Amino acid sequence: MERLEKQFKTTSFHRTLTDYFQSLYLNKLSVKRLVEPKVSRKSLEKYPYLKDGLIRPQSVIIEAVKNRKR
Question: Cys-Cys crosslink for 61: which of 12, 20, 35, 44, Cβ 3.0 to 4.6 Å?
Answer without folding.
Answer: 35
